[in-house]
Model the fold of this input.
Amino acid sequence: HGGTVVSATGSQLLDVLVDGETIAAVVQPGSTALGADLFAAADAVIDATGKYVIPGGVDGHTHMQMPFGGTEASDTFETGTRAAAWGGTTTIVDFVVQTPGQRLQDTLGAWHQKADGECAVDYGFHQIIGEVNDESLKGMSELVSEGVTSFKLFMAYPGVFYSTDGQILRAMQSAADLGALLMMHAENGIAIDVLVEQAIARGDTAPYFHGTSRPWQMEEEATHRAIMLAQLTGAPLYVVHVSAKQALEQIATARGNGQNVFGETCPQYLYLSLEEQLGAGFLDGTGGFEGAKWVCSTPLRSRAEGHQDELWRYLRTGDVTTVSTDHCPFCMKDQKDMGIGDFSKIPNGIGGVEHRMDLMFQGVKSGRISLERWVEVCCTTPARMFGMYPRKGVISPGADADIVVYDPAGHTSIGLGKTHHMNMDYSAYEGFEIDGHVDTVLSRGRVIIDGGAYLGSAGHGRFVKRELSQNLI
Ligand code: DUC
Ligand code: ZN
Ligand code: ZN
Ligand code: ZN
Done:
């Protein structure tokens, strides 16, 4: 009551009536449109005066307890979705991992076992195809009917998830037949592996060299190749975690040509850079390993080269379509530290599921994006992109009552472990002072964050059976 409801298309002082798990009405304050004073009859009223009332965040890219790099991502579905709730994210879409030799359907079952009954907020799945073969291709349609309507391939990580161009072509043909979204990790992994080997052989073993051995040319080239294969096959293409401005140029060109190509970026690429990673670790006399905190793929890029400014610009033009976190947390102790003396053994990933809404709101504060664009890239478009609209991503009658009351005058400090709820022994955003604060979070009508208190529970979150993407041309 009394807040400014922000949607992708505008902002207005409106009251929102929740009945059970869904939104019953959105009305002018004081309206008697429904025949009576709504709020006199309500069981509970949340005062949102002076605050923004936005749809719960939709993070389309997370990896809870993902087996990777010889270890497993440190957030479970329970801890990771609880952290998401603290940060105003009420839906995640996580990745089921198929490794060679497994049936897709079996891996989906295994991921349901990990997540079902554990999550604090609603969750869906994408499917990683780790081995493109006849059986996997056949299995795709069954997954679509089970609400897993997007498939991720890797042009990186030879020997782990890597697909050849021929395999990519075949998977894209199947995706095109089904109308399913093909997600791509676009880096030339074959060439990168040579650069990595050469760096280690030279003695360039510190974390910083993770970034320099994955230069932007490798991302641009793979992005271009994926776009051409998608154009040939007609598959809708969603390029994940884009960090190089040159890769975005490729995406912008394809979009300009009318192709169904979408770019995703993540807060780490908008706020953090290779230079900071260098300053933090490589030359500080501590042995240089602090930089491992920011080892992820695609890597952080050079601020001096202007990638961040271009990413923000493309966020405005729409060629960056969504902002997700690629939340893939690892602790420094016993996980990242496996790579002391050899950066290639550092598990790749940054945790950030809790901070996305806050970090992207800083873009509003600094005038880089509008208030409405904030909601669009963090809530509404991810819901449409991944086939969950209008149940998710919008405050309108009939939608799930996933609602965040966001205080633009509040403050959030991101310090060491103590101020976040992710299962990590550090924060990639340590020292960030956020203008803004997530005050109240509702998930399907239930208050799960109230001021400083967590009122949710493991198992409240439900699996979201997704439709095909609603964001295609
Ligand atoms: N990149 C990461 O940084 N972590 C998980 C997988 C990936 O592609
Ligand atoms: Zn990836
Ligand atoms: Zn070319
Ligand atoms: Zn990822």
User: Anything to note?
Assistant: Residues 63, 68, 185, 296-297, 326, 328, 348-349 surround dihydropyrimidine-2,4(1H,3H)-dione (ligand 1) (CB under 6 Å). Residues 8 and 196 are 42 Å apart (CA to CA). The radius of gyration is 21 Å.
